[in-house]
Amino acid sequence: MVSPSSVLRLHYGERTLGNSWDACRELQEEGSENLPVPSNFPLKKEERSVSYQYRNFSDGKAAAEGSWASGPAPDGKGEFT
User: Fold this and answer.
1) Helix, strand, coil percentages, rounded to 5, for the chain
2) What is the dihedral of CA 43, 47, 51, 57, to 10 degrees?
3) The dihedral formed by the CA atoms of 3, 38, 36 and 47, expressed in degrees to the nearest 10
4) How many CB atoms lie within 10 A of CB 50?
5) Among candidates 57, 49, 58, which has minimal Cα distance to 81?
6) Between the chain's N and C termini, which has fewer beta carbons within 10 Å?
7) What is the mean predicted confidence (pLDDT) over 9-33?
8) In 3D, which of 50, 49, 51, 44 has the Cα closest to residue 74?
9) Directed axis angle between helix 20-30 and helix 4-14, to 10°?
10) Which residues contact 66 (CB under 8 A, 6 or more apart)?
11) Which of 69, 65, 67, 66 is nearest to 55 (CA)?
């Protein structure tokens, strides 16, 4: 069986970072993983102050217009800023 992390690496290798959320949604639909990070990672160990920050390293402003840059996060626990 292929692990979710190796599937995610495959998706990242095939897609640009801007489309990585599409790959994560595919993993959700396939039942491989619920979140784009391991769902069993303890929240108390997560650095919550940066959990939903978006940093644009692309040329121009187009990347900041995507759903990954602002608005509610797919996990329902935060807002992208």
Assistant:
1) 45, 5, 50
2) -150
3) -150
4) 9
5) 49
6) N
7) 64
8) 51
9) 150
10) 18, 21
11) 69
Q: What letter represents residue 20's amino acid?
A: S
pLDDT at 38: 64
- The whole-angstrom separation of Cα 65 and Cα 44 is 30
pTM for this prediction: 0.42
Say whether 74 sits in a helix, a strand or coil. Answer: coil
pLDDT at res. 26? 80
Which residue, chain included where needed, has tokens 């069993």?
Answer: 40
Asked if residue 52 lies in contact with residue 81, where contact means CB atoms within 8 angstroms, the answer is yes
